[in-house]
Amino acid sequence: MHILITGAAGMIGRKLSERLIGAGDLNGEPIERLTLLDVVPPTAPAQPACQMHTVGADLSSPGEAAKAVAPRPQAIFHLAGVVSGEAELDFEKGYRVNLDGTRALLEAIRAIGDGYRPKLIYTSSIAVFGAPFPHSIPDDFHLTPLTSYGTQKAIGELLLADYTRRGFCDGVGIRLPSVVVRPGKPNAAASGFFSGIIREPLAGLEASLPVPDTVVHTHASPRAAVGFLIHAAGLARDALGARINLSMPGACCTVAEQIAALRRIAGERVAARIRRDQNPVIAHIVEGWPQRIEARRSRGLGFTAESSFDEIIRIHIDEDRGGSFVA
Amino acid sequence: MHILITGAAGMIGRKLSERLIGAGDLNGEPIERLTLLDVVPPTAPAQPACQMHTVGADLSSPGEAAKAVAPRPQAIFHLAGVVSGEAELDFEKGYRVNLDGTRALLEAIRAIGDGYRPKLIYTSSIAVFGAPFPHSIPDDFHLTPLTSYGTQKAIGELLLADYTRRGFCDGVGIRLPSVVVRPGKPNAAASGFFSGIIREPLAGLEASLPVPDTVVHTHASPRAAVGFLIHAAGLARDALGARINLSMPGACCTVAEQIAALRRIAGERVAARIRRDQNPVIAHIVEGWPQRIEARRSRGLGFTAESSFDEIIRIHIDEDRGGSFVA
Question: Which of A125, A281, B45, B270 makes the best surface tag, with the fewest CB within 10 Å?
């Protein structure tokens, strides 16, 4: 089969590509061709066993989406997008990339017609939810995003559901929880500290914690996130019904529990590298974020995530640090 | 103040214009200028006490939305749109008018900048909800529309909320229940029978009932619908909070109760003009529609509708039939 990944140069995109190339198949179907698309051409992984193409394209530019789907990939992982912070700072860019880009992709698929109906896995986010929340957010809770990013993701979900209902594609929307531990350098995202307080201490560096350690959030590892996308691609149409956008499961815990897990796994010296450094601006942003996600439907459909934050830390040490850390 | 009404030639648009002209003010503020916009120029009501302009324009055509908001109306009632049946039959037209038209209006407002921040009252619909439903649909129920129209309305709500949050406008989204009794000729809408079984018998004509009389639905009169829009225009920004899209109240009843009300008000001979004529296609469509709408928030904010279907029939006889009917 032929698979297209948009946003393939991002963290999840790279881990998804590597996993697919390693497996050689998607839910049992051999992969013959893999196209990696991003605004700058992604680096092709070493020694792929299938045909590889890397493409530099912005789906919101006229004609680019049509070119991307012209070879009729059977499965499309649509990960491309501007992140939360950038979409808030640059209103026009956020709408252009996250809304127009997604709509252009859907329209390009519809324009092919002729029975073409690809599996389309769309990465949404729990940013579609906005405070105030009940104790735990149920599957039928309304979408009242408090950011432009969350708004654009929610619109993408609605479009995906309508294009699927009309038979133009076979869509699944995957609302990712906070994905930690993100490898690499700290970034400016308000959520960055959730990864930072684990990643930096394990690398022997100090990390800053800008919020009280009573903050509750739902987390999944990058490995689990890639697993969600692959599992979604294998879901039978009738298992999903009309409600194709799903909140994913995750390990729900407080920041204090995250730190306790780090202490259990890596010791007191590592955990002591976290510097409490309250930042009212970040604390205020984080207050508006979803805490507990119920995710009953997705669990029932076989989506699985880590059941503890300990597992999430071990996956980071294993996958991104070659099994060791700076004690 | 200057008021712009889009979709002013439609049933609600005409009743809203007449009410505003009759009152001469909007929530106490004198109306100096009223602009009525529709794809074909609306007929100007007789003897307006204010400056009147009628405009023929399609907001989704380049430049039209900018022209419409250039005189900086302080209040905009955005009623323009393609109805449910047409949006389902003509996919492209539905998205162009309902989504692109609404977005063009929002973008034109944002482009003015310079502190311009009009009150923007957007007519949404309970078509944003899709089955299966709980016994009564609460305010925090998710939006999973089962039509392209409902999808476009839900996207409009999300855009309105984000443009409001960013300070570009001061939006309120009004989810109208089924508006009955619609005056005029029967139309092809699947929901047409809700009005038809009242309007036609009162005019001495036979009416067809395509669904079982156990069907439950929430109704409001055109008078109540116009009242919702005017009340929304007067809501203080902080009364509304971040969740600016509201399900409106209505009289919730079965078709049997609608017919019983008609019998009470107009007698057995009139009620006997309803022909039971089951249509499985229409019955199936109607099964997917919302039944009971809780509307706690909107009631709390002072929105009011009829408390019985009897009242709705009396309003129709009074407002559209000059007080009489064919016995």
Answer: A281
